[in-house]
Amino acid sequence: MKKFITFICIAALLLLSAGNVLAAEIRLRESYIEDTGDYRYYLDERNYVTSSQQLGRIVENVIKLTYNDYTYVSLTKDGENCDIVSGGYIYGDGNYTLTIGNGKDSGSINFIMRQPSGELSEDENFYNKSVLTQAYSAEQGLYSLSLRGLYTFYSPVPNYSVTDKPVKLLTPADDRMDITAYKDGEEINYSSGKTFSDPGYYVLSFVYDSADIDDDRYTESDLQGFSDEAMDNADIVVDDSYFNIADIAVYSFLIIDGAQNKLNFINPPQDYTISSVMLDGQKQPVNTRFYRPVNDGNYRILFKNNAGILPDYTLNFTRDTRAPALRFGNVGPGGIAHNKFSIIKDSDDTAVEILSGGAPYEYAPEITESGLYKITATDGAGNTSAYLISLKKKYTAAYLLLIPLALAVAAGIKLYSAYVSNNIHIR
Question: 219-240 pLDDT, tens per residue?
Fold first, then answer.
């Protein structure tokens, strides 16, 4: 009996200790930031992720996620782990799970991402949301994109594409067309013939007023007495087509420049699938719906049109996630330097920023002033590395030679004073 009780007690202690080890699943708290329009998801007051869009639902276009270095963050897409970097963009159709942890507890939130071609969430009776129809003119070297045959514009790249070249759009004038352009979520000026060249994610919204409605059909006096309650109770048959007063479509593209360290997913353009992927000349396994580059190197991705009526589309880019390295001359173990130290870059495109005592310090290949230095290197892809170096001054050999000389002079002065004192005679 005593052995049985002892066994139960040990089992209970083991269960309790296991409960302390296992991390608790906590529901994330959502907060809206009015100043920036972002959403923040808290595990606790210290660990959180800021998202450019609201999660927990269907999300369109692209998401930017930012978080602190000490916050554990992971992301999966369709059950596969994703590379994620704070400040990087996430885009590509799929089912996502974002997990936030603090080393003990964790919380997660799910969301679905899709290209902007689904139904509108509000005011849907007032819009016909359409997918642009694409064709290609070999003579012009341009894609023509048509909104239900009502309006056509021209671009050198297809919809939802990634490109390393400038994009010049030609949009014919039409009083019924309202075009709004956005870069990384911020509205920008747009006019026909504008060339987009700066790296970023661009979205153009096309709203075409295709209805011919007489706004003077009803006067204000005609509408008097029609309260909300009366309208709700009225037996009125409404022609829904009357309210479909505008057609809307979205055109988007991503411009990249130089080596990339945050391009985590690549989707094919509209009407395309991924045909082949080459990394440094070697063929890679292909998923026709999206590609997730993992290794650094030079990529060549070929997209083919599903119907075979559009030309092949090719994307070339370099992935570089390796942090830049600096070498230092005259720096010993622990980052200690005496008298001076030198800074040696591993590449000419590496930018070096120096802080001394927290204040900016002008870059120089050789540093000679005493102090604690934080040196940050940033390469063209945005990768960074940081170093701390403490520079201390030593007495130089010349200065050390002055010490016995000074002692000798002091001794001489003392001997001379004693001689003078001994040879003074008082009469």
Answer: 444 444 444 454 444 444 334 4
